[in-house]
Amino acid sequence: MSANPLSTGSEPALPLASARAQILTGIALALLMIATRGQHFASVDALPSASWAVFFLAGALLRPMWALPAFFVLSSLLDFGSLANGTITDWCLSPAYWALAFAYAALWLGGHAYRRLHRDSVGTVPRLALTLVVTASVAYLLSKGGFYFFSGRYPEPTLDGFLARIPHYYPRALGTLAGYAGVAFLVRACLRWLAARVASRQGSPA
Questions:
Q1: Is the C or the N end of the chain the one with fewer CB within 10 Å?
Q2: Residues ≥6 apart with Cβ < 8 Å to 175
Q3: What is the C-alpha to C-alpha distance for residues 38 and 35, in angstroms, rounded to an integer?
């Protein structure tokens, strides 16, 4: 009998087991970041930035810890490259830019923590949703809070001023993260189902 790709086994299903899956997923995440971050020849303007999701998914799916600094270097190269080409302004590239390192680390750690919570079953969705809310909240406070208070773009930043911005910006950040992460795990579930079907047919007698 073939294994059910949506089984509720007790063993954690993440990170990805095979080296081939790790490599292909890492490449896919890098291409997703390149396609959705900044303004350059390969960007897709119709898609929101997937950077938060890339770091979360890297933490959840990829085994090497060096994926975190590698993706941060990639994001920085895209930003400074777009600035050098004149396709973006220096509004976001302030002294607070490096607060993004802490925000991205929080996203990666959130994905890393989710590894132990994930099971290949529909019942794991609430766990994923809760992890995304907590992780997005921490990342938002680090990235947006760091920019608001330390970038120098706001002459007199106040706590009330920062809190007033949350209802406008946080839902979109959370929604984008959840959307990309949800699609990624849905694609993974479909691929596992297809692999199980192929294995079942190959194992059945002629």
A1: C
A2: none
A3: 8
Q: Which two tokens stand for residue 150?
A: 């330390």
CB atoms within 10 A of CB 20: 9
| Domain covering 19-203, topology | Arp2/3 complex 21 kDa subunit ARPC3 (1.10.1760)
Per-residue model confidence as pLDDT tens digits over 130-179 = 999 999 999 999 999 999 999 888 989 999 999 999 999 999 999 999 99
- Could you write out the DSSP letters of every residue in 47-106? SPP-HHHHHHHHHHH---TTHHHHHHHHHHHHHHHHHHHTSS-SSS-SGGGGHHHHHHHH
CA angle 141, 57, 16 (to 5 degrees): 150
Name the residue with tokens 């993706």: 71
How far apart CA 102 and CA 144 sit, in angstroms, is 11
Q: Answer whether 0.85 is exceeded by the pTM.
A: yes
Residue 124 DSSP class:
G
